């Protein structure tokens, strides 16, 4: 089996010989042919550095990316090539490292990583297969920092499986389900970690309600728990900016984004609330946080354009929805920030 590695600091040194050819001969991002036809609204500025990377599948089934750095406008969309059969998943497990996963046309989960340095291992790795098993959904990815990176997807029986990178052994665990798990799900899962060993995974049940399971102790998972009786029409998106915030987003029957967040004081999830605005959407949303209280939300509109909004300087107050250009996409987005490692 072929597999790629999340390039942690220790793994980078030991993988030089193996990955030298990939760094030299691997795909280099090509500038998008389509010009930036509309300015995107950047997040509100702060004193700390910030970066958000945004990904989606284009009409050519290739992976497309744009990113934002604090104090600069969003870049134009650029192609990272590839042949995807689903939306991508993205997470950062190390400073200036972004890791991607997506479903390939052969049903296998594909994986690649980007390292932001000028050394031999800098840039994008090649796509590789995470095993030979085939899946029925797009993947989800989550990390709580340099010691853990994990991918989730639904198998052909609609059951959730996961595969995590063993940093101490520099290898993937392989795909595993949960013993006696009979829960059938639909669509792609979502995952987020708010602290070390505090990882939640979310998925839509066949009854269209949202469910979650989570780590209760290192390596020990809860069973599936429903998140209320509200029904949804999309897979979820999930995000955390650290040990005081965990939030989930999904589309309701009105094609608008609804969200619920965990109240760490009350130790309970809030009810579901709709985000205002006339814009409607068609795929699972994605979110990323580059600092505490700084959250950007992205969603594919019914016009096939990417839209975003963000939390403003006023706590709990969102900006209006704004389009991110006129480019068309065929999947919901994936978003990641390498400036927010939850175990920092």
UniProtKB/TrEMBL annotation:
All residue ranges annotated as the PLL-like beta propeller domain in the record: 45-325
SUPFAM superfamilies: Fucose-specific lectin
Signal peptide: 1-34
The keyword Signal appears for this protein: yes
InterPro entries reported in the protein's UniProt record: PLL-like_beta-prop
UniProt entry tagged with the keyword Iron: no
Keywords for this protein: Signal
Superkingdom as given in the UniProt entry: Bacteria
Protein's UniProt name: PLL-like beta propeller domain-containing protein
Organism: Kribbella albertanoniae
Biological classification of the source: Bacteria, Bacillati, Actinomycetota, Actinomycetes, Propionibacteriales
